[in-house]
User: What shape does this take?
Amino acid sequence: MSKSILVTGGTKGIGKAIIQKFAAAGFDIFTCSRTEADLSALKEEIAALHPTVRMHAMAADLSKKEDTKAFAAFVKKTSIPDVLINNTGIFIPGSLHEEPEENFELIMQTNLFSAYYLTRAFTSEFMKRRSGHIFSMGSIAGLTAYANGGSYAVSKWAMLGFTKCLRQEMMPYGVKVTSVLPGATYTASWEGVDMPESRFMKATDVAESVWSAYNLSPSSVVEEIVIRPQLGDL
Assistant: This one.
């Protein structure tokens, strides 16, 4: 029976790179995006490159609790994935003292609450099965405070705390939990920035790191992956 991976926000950037990496290894794919057209394009791409891989996709806005729960139910109709990647996220720059207050709610709902609700939807099955690997996509902004990080940085600090707590809870059940903390990666979030692409990390490098962590023996787990541009943070 084929293994499967669930990646939220899988049509762009790091999420797409992870899907491409696992699909190349024969994993079936579950993913979501707010845009149906992006999902269709990804499905066509995966089908062309990996015709034996089954991709299950659903349009969903994970800033909304009801969409997150509906996506979890959609996945469960088919199977329980072997790997869960909480990748959905948005970045809106700003300062805590002057950003529009609705930014905090939107960013926390998208970056943190979606991971909370989606993870809870699958942990009981992972625990019963005594296997599974949960990755949470954090950020260097969750390790180092910086100006103009605003609510985004707060959400990533909270994501790291959430993942650390989850690691302790899942430890006795053989379920692995890993925090991924990338620095500036060349994705749509950085489009239009006046810097050479070579100054950024590649999304494929983050995907390779996730793949390597997943492939350790059951007796070991990578708890945190910190990966930065060679020339340092931006």
Summary: The domain at 4-227 is CATH 3.40.50.720 (Rossmann fold).
